[in-house]
Queue: 2 jobs
Job 1
Amino acid sequence: MEFDPLLISRIQFAFVVSFHAIFPVFTIGLASYIALLEGLHFKTGNPAWAQLSRFWTKVFAVAFGMGVVSGIVMSFQFGTNWSNFAQMSANFLGPILSYEVVTAFFLEAAFLGVLLFGRDKVPRGTHLFAAIMVALGTFISSFWILVANSWMHTPAGVEFQDGMLHVRSWAEAIFNPSFPYRFTHMAVASFLTGSFVVAGVSAWYLLKGHMVEANRKALSMCLWMILFLAPAQAVIGDFHGINTLEYQPIKVAAMEGNWERQAGAPLLLFALPDQAAQENRFEIGIPKLASFILTHDANGVIPGISEVAPQDQPPVSIVFWSFRIMVGIGFLMIAFGIWGLVLRLRGRLYEPGFFHRVLPLMIAAPFVAVLAGWFTTESGRAPWLVYGMINFSEGVTPSLTGWMAMVSLVGYMSVYAVVYASGGYYLWRLVQGGMADVEPGSSEPGAHPKRPLSAGGPIGDTAPAAPARGDWT
Amino acid sequence: MIDFTMIWAIIIAFGVIMYVLMDGFDLGVGILYPFAPDEESRDVMMNSVAPVWDGNETWLVLGGAGLLGAFPLVYSVLLPALYLGVFLLLAGLIFRGVAFEFRFKASPAKKGWWSAAFAGGSTVAALAQGIVVGAYIQGFETENFAYVGGAFDWLTPFSVLTGIGLVLGYALLGSTWLIMKTEGPVQEWAYRLTPKLLGGVLGVFLIISFWTPLVDEFVRDRWFSHLFSIWLLPAGALACAWLILRSVRNRAEGLPFVATMGLFIFTYLGLLASKWPYVVPPDYTLYDAASARESQMFLLLGVLFVIPVVLAYTAWTYWVFRGKVRPGEGYH
């Protein structure tokens, strides 16, 4: 059987980058949260903040570790599978990715060591400083990587010379047209992800009556964040869409499932795009709403997918549906923010109830939304690697054969299956084990009194010294 | 006119040796894992590198990104040429990287699996890196600035030998690191292991030295006809080897590690001097492989300011975690 190295390389990139992306999006938000908790503890001395910080730092360590190892893979993908693209775009992407390493990765790595292992080795202020540096590192990292990614969507400041892109203006290339929107959208997504994870776990602990004081504080903070950030994200997303309409009109056409250019385009709630027939097979829509959202004019003109030849079109179904999944979850998030506010106003935010049972289920939501968003924007760029400049077949490694690509794809899938299943399991157990073992003062490794919440009734704030990890595997 | 390409060659060469020395010792600790006296020793060994391994590995990412930024041809020829080897390298690094977190979270029954993942991943990664060195000495088949060779050109008896050499070399860095960072039974074990590892390293070193001029005419010419001062470098390496032996016999704690780093640096300089100025042998030099001048300059501006800061806080974290690692201490 003959494999197509180009197609397999695309699948491989989608696979490794998707598995990588879910960790940074969580750790960027969580790093800031930990820095905030450390700061609050430093300022008030309230042990509840320290309990929260210690617990979430452990979760952070596992998630960050998985982000690091999957990130190392990313830094070689351009060379192994897309070497012509690497060579052509190196004059811009090389320096940008190098800046990410020297300004962010080293900062995160060095201070993470102090954050995780140095609590008893450095003064408290220095430990707080380390937490802030880790959080700062995650942001600097996302700045550079989104510069690189945005430039691939809306390239600027470069020109071709002898088969390689040369940078004409660094300012234009770095602050390219889609960068401000993408960066803001992603930063807010990270905070929302962190908020939903912490809120979900806190709600679950409140249901169990575990560490009530600390978890009330955490739940309250996160719900405030969600209340304001979820609607803000919708507004940012709207601006991002308008920017995309200007620079990547065909992507927007695919997001809307709009095949022919038209004024007063409907917002399709449901459709089955048929790329072969260049039309939708079934659709339900709200008249004129797409035009109104995108152009802020009910009779505004929306471009059509058919304006470019079929081989230059993105895969419409993927773009269309992942966009709807992202937006749908976005509205769900807004609803949860409001629900939390209503409970708060009625003074029932901390009373274990239906809300607290549903909230843990929402932990998955931001991750799905983020992946769906990335699928929308990345698939929507097809068939271009650098929009309008370098396409997939120009960029792929010429010496790569189908079976080599297949070996590495199957290899990565197997490795990630083992690593991520284990990681997910240990994270689950970490949460299940509760926060009791992270009481200040007990820093003995391997000897934390730990007791599974599922094994019995509620665990009070004073944890009994149950046997350690060995007894519940 | 400033020769940015030369400056970048020096920066990248510095980054590579930083990676080799720093990730070398923590990979070496992993390679030695199966031979450790007991589980408690393994805990101590892992804790001795746990706070710093992530920073050490970041030098590899810098190597990848820095090559793309300054010498894109190296990046876009070597990675396709080494495609399957790169996968093995990364798979190894993934398993040993997550083992740091997972091993301490696993139940006693499963802990052994993550010890094995740590050891196996470290060994495979070291072997793959050593094979890269061998493949680099052999050279790459290129046409018109792209790799045109086969999928397994990198896998030869010669490159496997350089692979084994690097595994032993990293293990030596690991054992001397443990001499410095531990005490009691672990340290005693490392003291006994070090001369054996050194013997292995020197053995491979010797074979490679005889073999390299046979596989590579360019190197033969350089060694025997043109540049006799190059012989100072292996002489320096041998002096370091002698120093390792002597300091281990005297039960010195820091000197064996420092001397091992010296051994690596002399060997590395010897390799560079043998191949200079070819970065994609046998066809392309530094200057063929360089990125655009404005890109080199843009990146240099930042790197000149940032790298010293990186070195400063990296040194500071090593200072924070100075001294001996004791059983039961260290994990967050």
Job 2
Amino acid sequence: MRQTLLYYNGAFTQDLVVTFSEVLSQKLGNSKLVYSLVDIFIEMSQNLMHYSKDKSGSIVVTKGEDGYLIESCNTINSTQKERIISRIDAIKPMSRDELKLYYKECRKYGKFTHLQGGGLGFVQIQRHASAPLEYSFEDLSSGETIFKLTTTLQGA
Amino acid sequence: MQDLIIEATKYTPHIELLSSRDLLIFRGKSYPENTFDFYAKALEWIEEYLAKRQNPATLDLDLAYLNSSSSKLFFDLFDLLESHSDKGVKVNWYYDEENESALESGEEFMEDFTKLEFKLIKK
């Protein structure tokens, strides 16, 4: 039975992201694992705010015996689907060292013009995660697509 | 040149840019929603300062948390400082012993910017 630490469905704002991050830190204390969890939570929330049409969606953080799951769900414009898939597929098979090098490589690209598109964010999330990121898409008749992302973080 | 001071919020650092002391301070957490908008004023100040300065500059950083776009922004800032490093640039990267990630983040910047006099300092 997994314990739900946080569940939110609705409009996201920067203030809510701050509040939820503080709630997670207060509940779980200050360890490297919690730092990773909060970092994943912030990156996934800000990705959601960037990609979703109206800055809305849901995020759930649960805790089981072997660690945490962070799941986000939001609608995106269908045209962004391929870009998200290629970005995540590129990093999924990478080892920790490869991810570090790739992160540093991505960070060099562009100057003071970083387009907020989750490129570096996905790499940062994957660097913390204990397993490859998992995603799924569901195309809606409206031309929009539901994007689900799941991050696994092992540890107690 | 006038100093620029920007107070901290819960998700943006305290910033003090002091031309009279050749000292640039960033202290706190950084995860604004629109990172480049937030830092635009500070970057503009730093570019003007670097063009005019006569003395070596010191950058004091005490950043407990950087989201990915803030990490990108500080990368670009180091890059800018490195391109002006002929007059000397010292970077003091302060970290809390318990915050392993802040130390790692400092180490990764240090690896990329070997022309800057980069020091990792335990608080």
